[in-house]
Amino acid sequence: MSAQPYGLIATFETPAEVYHAAEQVRDAGYKHWDVISPCPIHGLDKAMGLKRSIVPRISLAGGITGFITGMTLIWWTDAFDYPLIVGGKPLFSPMFAFPVSYELTILFTAFATIIGMFVVNGLPMHYHPVLKYDKIRRGMDDQFFIVIEARDPRFNAANTGVLLQKIGGKEITELEP
First CA to last CA across the chain, in angstroms? Predict the structure, then answer.
């Protein structure tokens, strides 16, 4: 008895072909599938039915945290930790705290973006079953692929293969886990 395959992979020749095929896979109701492309394809995320990433929100939260941290640091230092009145100036002024807050905003945004991207994308991923496919290197050069995973509730090797063939997929191959 053979092991359950990881899924099916189909080859497409052009960005337009894979774009329209992705729309049809989405409309067929599949949830666990992906497109492998050597270049960005404008609108492909919409064609795949993907929602907007939460990484920008994570970045914004990091930036706000950095700004508040900078302001709080200067306020605490000037007003409580080391109060020093020079020439009648106030103990705290946002104008004096701005450079530190600005730099911490950039720093915290960068860290939040990198960490958020890693968490959302499930990185680092040192192995993926698609890498066993002998022609996957063409996906970095001039070929486009659609991979439908076997864990999808709608997956049936025969029916999914027929769908991939109907939407223009060539070289439909079963992937090893």
Answer: 14
Span 61-77, pLDDT tens digits: 999 999 999 999 999 99
CA dihedral 100, 101, 103, 108 (to 10 degrees): 130
107: pLDDT strictly greater than 90: yes
Phi, psi of 170, rounded to the nearest 5 degrees: -115, 160
pTM attached to this predicted model = 0.79
Closest C-alpha to 86, from 98, 96, 101, 72: 96
Pair 9, 175: CB distance under 8 Å: yes
From residue 52, how far is each of 55, 108, 120, 167 by CA, in Å? Answer: 9, 22, 12, 26
pLDDT tens-place string over residues 29-85: 999 999 999 999 999 999 999 999 999 999 999 999 999 999 999 999 988 888 888
Looking up tokens 């100036």 gives 89
Question: Distance between CA atoms of 175 and 164, rounded to whole angstroms?
Answer: 14
Q: In angstroms, rounded to a whole number, what is the distance separating the alpha carbons of residues 58 and 63? A: 9
